[in-house]
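Co-fold these.
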Amino acid sequence: MNAIHYREIDGRSAGFWGLAALLLTFMAAGATAGYFMERIGHIITGMTNQVVWGMPHVFAVFLIVAASGALNVASIASVFARVEYKPLARLSGLVAIALLIGGLAILVLDLGRPDRIGLALTHYNFRSIFAWNIFLYTGFIVLTGWYLWVMMERRLNRYGRMVGTVAFLWRLILTTGTGSIFGFLVARQPYDEAIMAPMFIVMSFSFGLAIFILVLMGAFKGTGRALGDQLLMRLKNLLGVFAAAVLYFLLAFHITKLYEAEFRGSEAFLLWNGGIYTALFWFGAVFLGGVLPMLLFWLPQTRRSRNAVAWGSASVVVGGLALMYDIIIGGQAWPLSIFPGMQVSSSFYDGVVNYYAPSLPECALGLGGCALALFITLFALKLLPFLPETLADEQGQAG
Amino acid sequence: MRPRPHSEEGRVGRSREEPAGFEEGENGIDEGRRRLVGAAVVGALVLAPGVSLIAYAEADGRRATGASSKRRWGLLIDTTKCKPSCTACVTACSSYNGWKNEGRPTDPQWIRKVQVTDPKTGFSRSVPVMCQHCANAPCVEVCPTGASFRRADGIVLVDRHICIGCRFCMMACPYKARSFVSENLTEQKPWAPRGKGTVEGCTLCVPRIDAGKVPACVEACAREGGGAMTFGNLKDPASALSRALAEYPSVQLRADLMLDPGVHYRGL
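Predicted complex below.
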């Protein structure tokens, strides 16, 4: 097997600093939004007592789910011994940590009392899936950091498979926990399904790999390094399968719901007459998140195109965000069924579809978290040797 | 385990005139204890200013002394006596606890009147809905820090000192019983601490209960409404509440979820 040579990126070009400045601008906007949400209150957001989790959660959960998926490339290399993926393993671990930190930053700044985040680390309710997630998130960062160290320190390389296996199992549990936050919500009809846990795992495969491919292509193009077609096509095929798997899980989820009379009202809302939520599901989640990428990846006209890989991956990301919006906001827009089968009305919006429109601070906070994840990735690439010098086909195959 | 404040109100005695709606059975508060509480009131009035300051300062670390697992406080709401036009319970709750509903979707509502109509028959009822003080409360289960908690006597509360404002409890509550404080507040009631960035809901007027009174909504319903609310100890078979529950059919909201709410409804 040929040795893989890794090297830091130079990070001196105008493009590098221009990108860094752009990301810093978004981060500053996000931090400012977080500051005002804390000082003035959530009144400056679109969130209400009806829709209590808004746009920040859409971005945060998307990034957290994608983080565990981004680690898959490293897992394929070390756990499943596919050596052709090994040169990508370091970048995979880095992107995973960066995405998780970006998502957690949003989540923390969206708290009503972000100043009390220390309490979340000292006061645990072990029956809470949320408390479990705090463990799972911090554990993921520690484990993936350890995994990176083992991969980057030559004398520790022999532990790579062991640490990689632990990290892989951890990430499966982590995404199970994230999906279960919604799956355990028995009171809300659009949630309340155990299948949400594995569905979130498959979503993580798709979103994480799409972001990874975009970062990989961007980093290699930006630094003028060679990225072989064969490796890229292999990743693209994998992403196509993951996108199809998400569609399968969405089908199984909604078919199960439709089978139960109790859920037909909420299903009709999400799938048929729910306005923006119906549009986001069919055009966003299904078409952009699944159908379009598969067409781009596998139609004879585009299957060899690198542009199609990039556009398909971007489409998965946009579709993923749409799906997350549909799940989180659409799920809350549907009113609670406190009196099943009855028509209800009150001054507290009982029985009506809840209105929500994201405000600018919420979007700024969400985009700021995305920028933070990319900023961490960008500077880590400059500081440490995460990127192989070349991934030209022969090297990519030989690993 | 970290001790919790059981009440933010200084302990005072039970009102001289027992409000309608409060029902204790043989195991309830006896006369001797009432006199003892009365004596405590005199002492409290003398010592209150200084003690209150210390009490408020130490509220975070105070061990619950008012709640006993020998009781489980509950309510029976007779919807046949609840008039759609009457909002006495809502007004009393708002007034006592200091929250205001100005019609905005961000405004809190610790208790609300819900008009419930059967579309197949046209049968309609007006129903007060508040925290149902569940035995298996989902808000308590999901709270990451344990800020949502259930007292020994079944009252479900939020410890505002450790609520981080994640709103997971609001996602989990089947009754939409909780509100999030979205902006700065002024003029809060000392016995009902509220703060921006934390979640709140019906406390069953816990300071009043600890003082031997009934919740404000129950008192107002008896005084101005149709006397539709009966408050009492579910664990005392002799209490009027338990006797009424044994005598007439009643339901719990979303009983299928097996949360065992402490609030029961008649006539639904």
